Amino acid sequence: MDSVGRTIPKRFLSLVLLFLALILFAAAPRYASPYHIIQLTSIFMYIVLTVSWAVFSGPTQYMSLASAAFFGIGIYISAILGKVLFLPVVIGLGGLISFLLALLVGLSSLRLRGMYFTIFTFGLSELIRHFVLWWEVNETGTVGRWVVGVNPKVVYYVMLIIVLMTLAAAYIIKRSKFGLALRSIGESEEAADHIGINVNAVKIITFAISTFFMGAAGAIMATRWTYIDPSIAFNPLFSFMPVLMAIFGGIGHIYGQILGAAVLTLLADVLLTKFPYYYMLLYGIILVSVIVFLPQGVIGLEGKVKGLWKGELAK
Amino acid sequence: MRILEGEGVKKYFGGLAAVAHVDFYINQGEIVGLIGPNGAGKTTLFNLISGSLAPTSGIIRFKDENITGLKPHQICKRGMARTFQLVKLFGEMTVLENTLLGFLFGTGTVVSNSKAKRESLELLEFVGLSAMKKVLGKELTIANQKRLEVARALATKPELLLLDEVMAGLNPTEIAQGTELIRKIRDKGITIFMIEHVMKAIMDISDRIIVLHYGEKIAEGTPEEIAENRAVIEVYLGT
Fold this sequence. Notes:
CATH architecture of chain A: Orthogonal Bundle
Low-confidence stretches of chain A: 1-5
Number of strands of chain A: 2
Shape of chain A: globular
Order of helices and strands of chain A: HHHHHEHHHHEHHHHH
Helix content of chain B: 25-40%
CATH topology of chain A: ABC transporter involved in vitamin B12 uptake, BtuC
Strand order of the largest sheet of chain A: 1-2
Distance between the termini of chain B: 38 Å
Oligomer: heterodimer
Low-confidence stretches of chain B: none
Order of helices and strands of chain B: EEEHEEHEHHHEHEHEEHH
């Protein structure tokens, strides 16, 4: 709610930047090496997971650790139906089934608050992983399965489209009255309820929408990995990483979340290749330093630099 | 006409009757005070009326509709709003955003963003906070936080406003201003039911007072009648 004079050029600038970035990314497969395309695909995947996680968990402060569950469901849908259905249908179904499951989870869990909600979602994720494992052992007789492979460039473009859809959804929700309602829920659910906000409906629907993109991303990523099993598909890391990335970049802003996902994905790649022995150590040090010195995430730097520029310390 | 009516309203917490079989009514356009010592069940009664809690038994009617068991957001959309004893503002939001939410979600009709903004600005003018529209809720003084909470409740366009100790913690000047604001709200045609410990304020402003003690209604009447009521004097001063 800044003054008109400031916001219009700023919004215009970010639109131009977005457009340029879009052209750049759309053209990338023509120029970039296959390695970089795969790396960009990973970054896109983490952007989808991080931004969609933050759509719900950011403003409401309900920390979900179930991203892996919805991502993994997308992966399994792709593995099971990839052989019989068209790719876009498979991806749509991956999102849709995640969405429906999230509605059920929401109905049963959103009465839980704070830590209890977090533990519930983590437990749910693990439960699904073990259920799928049990099902494979007892019903199909084999653990893990092959996924129909897809050209890496196609994976790249599909992921780019899912990124754009996720960003558009996140932006629209944030700017709408529901974005305001989600923030009010994060501050005081009781007060939100008393000014006419159907707190449970807003929470459950937003949560479900956010998982649609996780499921869709899982469905397309599976085709790149070609082999999956429950411990790959439902790896708890897919639940933890989005949280870290959002906090690392700056949970309050979409561009902070994007930055966090991009920087941490690249950082992991660089550290793993250059310092294979000290990878985890360095990674940990960097994470801890950012959280200690930049509690608002990397985008907090902007404020600090501006503060120094004006000759005063930013708060 | 009775805008709010309770029949045999009861609320048990375990074996303890926080509200024990209370009958009450509020007429349209009245200012009714609700007083009683600490722990008398005043806030619990408000929680039952606003839907925060479901009564153990009894019926609450609002505008001749049985609202017992409805959720707070449903009751709010039917035209009832409240404030809280401990202020529950959205502290990380601006003053304007606080009232916007009320207009956008609480009125029971679809309101466009521009209309909500226009009405919010008018409302902030009305309560005297328009100079602070861009300030974060948490940065306001206590008196202004209470004012904003009243404004946020008014944004939902209530016909009945429940005020839970809006004067608590204010200095005499602020209490006088608060009293003035409550009169102005009543003059807009909004019925007011208020809990208050500041006796001067409640005696000045109320048309009628209800006294609770240990969850039971022990007296009801005009401020003059209440001031002379033996049961009330015993409760407040001891025998």
